[in-house]
Design brief:
The chain is α+β, with helices and mostly antiparallel strands. The chain has three domains: about 10-55, OB fold (Dihydrolipoamide Acetyltransferase, E2P); about 65-140, Nucleic acid-binding proteins (OB fold (Dihydrolipoamide Acetyltransferase, E2P)), CATH 2.40.50.140; about 145-230, Ribosomal Protein S8, Chain: A, domain 1, CATH 3.30.1370. It contains five helices and 16 strands. The strands form four sheets. A five-stranded mixed barrel has the order 8-9-10-12-11. Helix 3 (about 165-175) runs parallel beside helix 5 (about 215-230) and helix 4 (about 190-210) runs antiparallel to helix 5 (about 215-230). The longest helix is centred in the last third of the chain and has 17 residues, at about 190-210. The radius of gyration is 19 Å and the shape is globular.
């Protein structure tokens, strides 16, 4: 039994499948259960499972909105994977926007390893140490939804001119999207079928970003899938 979908972003310790699947990379078995050992993309082919580790492709810059995955904690905050050669550092004060007594408060109640977070790049120094902030509206820990990843270079095409592609994705599907400059997109929707349709649309955009008329083709695909569901 599979517990994830192909191309789904997974984190260390996440249950991928149960049963006699063959592990190729990036996962481990405990009894009949298979778990991810890295932050990466689930790659499912027949009875074979692997997790492709995320490669460093995104270079953070100040002001970028990113979607990160918490991979470690420290005394006063968290370390986040940003789909980049460089990790992000988030101090608890930049999440809560207040002073915190670290001797008395357990910061794991705010964020823990494996949590997904929408953040903004606050600063990047000359050594490429990335400082994040997440205390403003629209930022912070993600609740529910589906996280997918495409090439960061294709993110401008996902947004489109004056937001045209993003508006199409949301209005036709009825889903809500949050797009990170680091190539990660969160999708929320009540209809899981349409959430999956948006995933397919994002992969289509990634493949065909160089072509013209893409927005119209994406709209047609989503409308077709929506009508097939009887809506």
């Amino acid at each position: 039994m599979l517990h994830v979908q192909n191309r789904e972003l997974v984190v260390p310790g996440q249950l991928l499948a149960e049963g006699g699947y063959v592990i190729r990379q990036g996962a481990f078995r405990e009894g009949s259960r298979i778990y991810s050992s890295v932050v990466g993309l689930a790659d499912l082919h027949g009875q074979e499972i692997r997790v492709i580790p995320l490669q460093g492709r995104y270079i953070p810059k100040r002001g970028d909105v990113v979607i990160g995955v918490v991979i470690d904690t420290h005394y006063s905050g968290w370390i986040l994977d940003l789909n980049s050669p460089y990790v992000g550092n988030l101090f608890v004060s930049d999440l809560l926007r207040r002073k915190v007594d670290l001797m008395r408060e357990d910061i794991s109640k705010y964020l823990d390893v494996g949590d997904v977070l929408v953040a903004q790049v606050k600063d990047v120094d000359e050594l490429m140490r990335v400082q994040l902030e997440a205390g403003e509206p629209g930022l912070g820990r993600v609740e529910g939804g589906k996280l997918v990843e495409i090439s960061p270079a294709k993110i401008p095409r996902v947004i489109g001119r004056k937001g045209s592609m993003l508006n199409t994705l949301q209005s036709v599907s009825g889903c809500r999207l949050k797009v990170g400059q680091n190539g990660r997109v969160m999708i929320w929707g009540d209809d899981q079928r349409m959430v999956n349709a948006v995933v397919e649309a994002l992969l289509m955009i990634e493949r065909e970003a160089h072509t013209s008329g893409l927005t119209d083709r994406v709209r047609a695909m989503l409308e077709k899938l929506k009508s097939e569901g009887g809506e």
